[in-house]
Structure formats: structure tokens, C-alpha cells
Amino acid sequence: MISDALTHMQNALDIVERSPHPTNKIAATLFGMTNEGEDFALGCTNHWPDPIYEKVGTQQKIGNSSGTIHAETACILKSQHALEGASICITDPFCPNCAKNIAEAGIKNIYLDEDGFDKDFFKRRGNHFEKMSMQICERAGINVYALNMLTKNRRVILEIAPDYKPVEDSPIIAEPIESINEGIFNQIIETASEINQRRKFAVALVKSPRGNNFALIARAHAVVGYSMHKPEEALDLLTPRGKYSFIQEPVNRLTMYLSRKGHTLYPDYFYCSQVPTAREQVNLVGGGFKRITIGNTQKCRDPEGIKAMEQLKSLGILDYS
Ligand SMILES: [Zn+2]
Q1: Do residue 188 and residue 154 come from a single domain?
Q2: Which of 3, 45, 203, 204, by CA, is between 20 and 30 Å from 248?
Q3: Ligand 1 centre and the CA of 118: distance in Å?
Q4: Whole-prediction pTM
């Protein structure tokens, strides 16, 4: 098993210089087994998604979000296979946002290049890695190892008990549906808005790897492994830690769930009850999504999301209906 990880880490190291980022070049390789029992692997660097690179450039932000997408998240969004139980090799210790995405995508093993811990980049961001990223992995039940590429040794950073089951007190609702059309879409949105009252939610109509159709409903919630049932804990989870938070926004949750299960979105049937955050919108572009339907275009967690929507809309990068 360690030889697999070493090979995939080498592949990540081989592509890392292709990252267009001028200073922080990072690469990741996602690998696992398809539903048919075949090996798959996919490598990505951090990068600007093509439409952003071409139409916005590298100097401008999208709302308050950088226009880049991290290597780990790019791999997850681009994967064509169900990621439940998959592994990922990363050249550097990962940020809390990627930790949340890895957790929600059902990835169970993370391998980091030991050299990544010596870089300036880690020294500046190490605190978030220790305090948040690792905590998220522990709660979600993800093993984390460091690989020494010279000695070929594996160091355990975090190992999870085999019988550990993370709490999931607001799982994504997956409702089987017969056919895909506007009427069904509207009906599901109506049901979802009744369930969620005034809370923010997202809906997607998807096809499973076995060819079955599902309607998915997600609301914002703390990342898998964290319960929000106790009010004082929920309040703590809702408090941002600098630029990060333990909450996973509904659009992000749905896109990660698609990767977890290997579902394919019906492109015209993706809905969010309000404007997604700037980061969610950049991830959508990075995932190749072209269109989203918004319930209330005046409402957003913060004004930056609205700004991002206006930018991406006016440049024809994302279509908002
Ligand atoms: Zn990241």
C-alpha cells in the first residue's frame, strides 16, 4: 500500500512545477478504486480555472475569494469516479477548506510530502493546519501520513480506529425520482424550502453511476463529524476562525457529495436558495459548472458573494437564472 502512495506522491511532485501560481506551487494526486474494481488516479495543481484565467486574469479577486482553486479541491471536483474511501497525496500540508472538502468527499487517507513541512508556506500557515485541518480529519475519520520520498518511509500523523463512525446529523437528502424536468425540479425546490424554512439550502438533480436519477437537498452545516445538536457547540462551530470556518456551505456540500458518490449533475438543474459565497462560486467554475438557479438574488451570507455573482455574470463565466 505504501508503494502505491509513494508512486502517486511522485506523480504529484512531477507536476507541481506546472502550477501557474508564482510562489505557492502545490500539486495533489487523487487515487482509488472505481466501482468496477479498477484503479484510477488523477493529478492537479492549484490553478486558475480556464474561464477565470482568460476573462478575469490572475490579479483580480472574485468577490473576496482568490480566483484560484486549490489542488486538492480541483482533483475532487474533476474526478469522474465515486471517491468514498479514496486516498490523496498532496505536496504540502492542506488548508481547512480543503480538509472540509476532502471530508465531505468521503476520502479516507491523506499522504503529505514530508518536505512540505519545511517550506516557508507551511511555516506561515502551520497554525491552521494544526488547529483546524487536523481536527477536521480526526472528526471525519481520515488517516493522515507523511511520506519521506528519500527514505521511502511513512510517518503516522493521525490514524483512526477502524470502527470509528463520524456523526452526521444533517446528511444530504437523496430522493429517487422518475424523470428529469422543470416541473419535478420546481416541486423538489418547494419541498426543500418547506423543510428548511428560512435556512439556506441547495438542490441538484443528478444521475448515479448505476443510471438512477436522484434529487439531492443540502443545507449549510458543520463539516461531517461535527454535531450541531447542542446549542453551545453549534454556536462555537458557527464562529469563524479568521478566514476559515467549520461550516460547509450547501453548494459546496452538494458538489463534494457528487464526487463522493460519482453522481453526474443534470446541468440545468442546480439550485441555491440564495447567492452562494464567492468561494463556492469559484469552486463551481473550477468544477466546470456553467449554470445555477438562485432563489433570492438579493440575499447572500455577505456582500462579497453578490459582487462575485455580478463579476462572473457580466463576463459570461457562470449563468444565473
Ligand atoms: Zn486548500
Answers
A1: no
A2: 45
A3: 18
A4: 0.96
